[in-house]
Amino acid sequence: MRVAAVVGLLLCSALRPTAVGAQEDHRLPLTPENIHWGYYDASIPPALTIRSGDRVHFENMLARGLERLRVAGFDEARFTEAMLEVERAETVRVGSHPLNGPISVEGAEPGDVLEVRILEIGFLTPYGVSGFLPGGGTLPDDFPSAALRRFEVDTISGTITMQGVPDVTIPARPFFGSIGVAPPLLRGRINSTAPGYHVGNLDNKELVEGSTLYLPVHARGGLLSIGDGHAAQGDGEVSGTAIETSLYGTIQVVLRKDLELAWPRAETETHYISMGLHPDLDEAARHATREMVEFLVTERGMSRDDAYVLCSVALDLRITQLVDGTKGVHGMLAKALFR
C-alpha cells in the first residue's frame, strides 16, 4: 500500500469503534528490572506481558537520571529511594532516557498497530530541571556556556515556578516525551535520542492525559517503552530540554489488527494530529502536510486541490522539537471541522 493511502487510513481510525477485550491492571514500579536506559531494542526480554485492552500503571525517572538534579543544587534528601536504586543499578546507558518496559502485547505482530491511550499522568516528584549545554539547542553560537535552573511544581494549583524568576508562573502540562516500540530485530539497538519510524523521543507536548498515540508494530509483541517525563515544554524545546521531571502514568494498550500504518499518528479530544520527522525542517513540514492532505482525500472524499487549500486555511503546523537531530513538525486539524 502507498504511504499516502496508509496515512489516510491511520488518521480516520478513531472514527471506527474499537473492541476492547481484557481489561486487567498491571504495575511497572520504578525498579531496575523495569528500566532500560536510552534505547529501543527487540532483543531485550519484556518487563511485562499484557493482553489487548489491559491497563499499565508505571513510574518513571527523569532523563539523565539524578545527574542534572545534583548539579542544579537539589537536596539529596528529595530523591526517592527508588530513584537512587535505579541510578546505582543501571550501568548500561545508551541514550539519555530511562524507559519503562518493554511491554509485550499478546498477539501483536509486525504490521499491526498499538493504540496507546494515555489515561493518567501525575508527578512522582514535585520538582524538575531545565537548561542547556555548551553549543546546544537552537542557538548554539549564542550560548557557548551551560546553565541549569530548578523548577518547583505546585501539584494542587497545577503551576510551576522557576528559580530566579519569581514573577513568572508556568502552567503544568505533564507528558511523556518518549513513547515507542522496538525496531525490527535485525535493526538492532536504536538510541533513544532521536525519534523515527519506531516513534520514540517525539517531545510532542500535545500527548497529555486523554490523548492517544497510534504506533505501527515492527517486532513480535510490539515491545512498547515509555519515559522522559516533562512537566511543561514549549513547541520547539529550543534550549534542548523541557522541564525534566519524574512522572507516573497509566496507559491502556489496544491491539489494532484492522489498521495498517507506516508512520505514527495521534489524536486528542479536539484534534487529529499528523506527524513529520526529518533532519531537514522543511522536509518534516512537507511530510506532516502531505499526511493530512491524504487523509482529507482518502477519508473525506475531497479532491487533492480542495484538500490542499483546506490545509492552508485550517491546518496548524507546529514545530514539535528542533534539537534531537531528527526534527519534528506536527499538523493539528480540528475535529470540529467535520459534521
Placed side by side, the strands forming the largest sheet appear as 1-5-17-7-15-18-19-21-20
The top-level CATH class of the largest domain is: Mainly Beta
What is the terminal separation in angstroms?
A: 29 Å
Unreliable segments of 5+ consecutive residues: 1-17
CATH third-level topology of the largest domain: Jelly Rolls
Q: Which sheet architecture does the biggest sheet show?
A: 9 strands, mixed
Estimate the helix proportion, in percent: 10-25%
Description:
- The structure is a single chain.
- This protein has 339 residues and is α+β, with helices and mostly antiparallel strands.
- It has 2 domains: 19-257, Sandwich (Jelly Rolls), CATH 2.60.120.580; 271-337, Roll (Endonuclease I-creI), CATH 3.10.28.20.
- 17% of the residues lie in helices and 35% in strands.
- The chain has 5 helices and 21 strands.
- The strands form 4 sheets. A 9-stranded mixed sheet has the order 1-5-17-7-15-18-19-21-20.
- Helix 1 packs across helix 4.
- It is globular and about 60 Å long.
- The protein starts with a helix and ends in a 5-residue tail after the last strand.
Précis, in short:
Helix content is 17%, strand content 35%. It has 339 residues and is α+β, with helices and mostly antiparallel strands.
Descriptors for this entry?
5 helices; Jelly Rolls; alpha+beta; 21 strands; six-stranded mixed β-sheet; 339 residues; Endonuclease I-creI; disordered N terminus; 2 domains; nine-stranded mixed β-sheet; globular
